Amino acid sequence: MIGGSNPRSRSHFFMRLSRYFLPVLKETPSDAHIVSHRLMLRAGMIRQAAAGIYSWLPLGFKVLRRLEDIVHQEQIRAGHDPMLMPTLQSADLWRESGRYDDYGEEMLRITDRHGHDMLYGPTNEELITDIFRNSVQSYKQLPLTLYHIQWKFRDERRPRFGVMRGREFFMKDGYNFDIDKAAAMHAYNRHMVSYLRTYERMGLKAIPMRADSGPIGGDDTHEFLVLADTGESEVFYDKRILDLSLGERAVDYDDWDQCAAIKQEWTTPYARTDETHDAALFDAIPEEYRMTSRGIEVGQIFYFGTKYSEPMNARVTNADGDLVPVHMGSHGIGVSRLVGAIIEASHDDNGIIWPEAVTPFKVGIVNLKQGDSEADSACEALYKELTAKGLEPLYDDREERAGGKFATMDLIGLPWRITVGPRGLKNGVVELTSRRTGESREMVPAEAIAELEAIYSEV
RNA sequence: CGGGCUAUAGCGCAGUUUGGUAGCGCGUUCGUCUGGGGGACGAGAGGUCGCAGGUUCGAAUCCUGCUAGCCCGACCA
């Protein structure tokens, strides 16, 4: 975390805009056509390295890490074990599952110096199943869910939309191993609940929709979609699903009935992508609740039974002493894609508007008259106090005019801004401004800090 | 993978038709004035014109080949 104790710490040093690497662009790069891509480039979050491949600059990297942290926390809360698998894999396991040929051109194939066929992993079912089968022999070691958050690569024919459809992407993928279908369905439900909680924590409304299983295969699958005009999928849903919220309710992830009930709650209202859309069912909804819009897919959960455990011989001994293939499922959250999706869902003409839970800095300090001793010292005091309280400020201490500082703050989207200028300081006040509403209130610095503490204690 | 297009300074672009030694805006550096929504003035720095070959006295410009990237479609977390 951010420590206020050591004023020379790197985090302290680089939270001053004069020393922070934030290459913002005034003009829109011509290659970017959708709003999140444009804003991520303009806000200095990413830099394109090749088609569909991006470097994450400090500001973008901070957001990516925040999302990763939330995903980890919610996975661990649900009882899943974090681990890390490599990006490069041997082709051998993929030949065993039969997917080496099935996957086609989307898989990036590499040959090492020994002539061995390698690949940059697009997903990890084979690898995890291999790990599992070598170490688990008994039903007593189940249930088990392993996951990791790692870079993947899919050699898209046509990457586009910035990080929303890159070739390289950062993704959480998890795999559950259960003794039978009933247990695996609990894992499925548990994942649905934990995903709902994950997205809610990020300040997003992600709707689970019945979906197609695609190349992963399997029977049961839901996609989670964030509504946004620029979404790649057309979606049909019952408006009432938007009213559902997990909120503060306590969830026991080991409670099969509770998880099943929550899944039931979220899958009862109609919600489907165009792939699985059923016009007859949709038309049965009262017209006032019938909604059509576009959505960005930010996650998917699958139950695929023994699709991999059979061919790869991942079996355990059950209570009767019989050797049976384990029932599996997999689940993914597109972490890097979420950065774009959040921006698509939360921005205005001036720039990004970060939800408090994922913002790269919690508050921006704008010094309207750099070099004015009163303004400078008021800003320094605020900066130290906010830093000490873990309210991670970004202090714009550049020799810039007010307009430029405001424009930068609006562009990078910090949800709160404290504006400090000689005019207000005459009366001992600063301004606290909400990026989302634009509402601005004058108050003494201590009150602004207290307000921010209250706001952030809730996220 | 089909169709279309682009490549000139960090970013956005003009110059290519008609070959003559590279320009504008923003940004950037220095100075002065300014100071509550991208300010003004002055002085600078910055480019193998995507790469290779060819034509020519001379190529950003014409020709050939290559590479990279973008858009529409089909496809996809």
Fold topology:
Elements: H1 10-13, H2 35-42, E1 46-50, E2 53-56, H3 58-77, E3 81-82, E4 88-90, H4 91-97, H5 99-102, E5 108-111, E6 117-120, H6 125-135, E7 144-153, E8 168-178, H7 181-201, E9 206-210, E10 220-227, E11 233-238, H8 256-267, E12 271-273, H9 279-283, E13 290-305, E14 315-317, E15 323-325, E16 327-334, H10 335-345, E17 347-348, E18 351-352, E19 363-367, H11 373-388, E20 393-396, H12 402-412, E21 416-420, H13 422-425, E22 430-434, E23 440-443, H14 445-457
Parallel strand pairs: 3-7, 19-20, 19-21
Antiparallel strand pairs: 1-2, 4-6, 5-6, 7-8, 8-16, 9-10, 10-13, 11-12, 11-13, 13-16, 14-15, 17-18, 21-22, 22-23
Helix pairs in contact: 2-10, 3-7, 3-10, 7-8
The structure holds one RNA strand of 77 nucleotides.
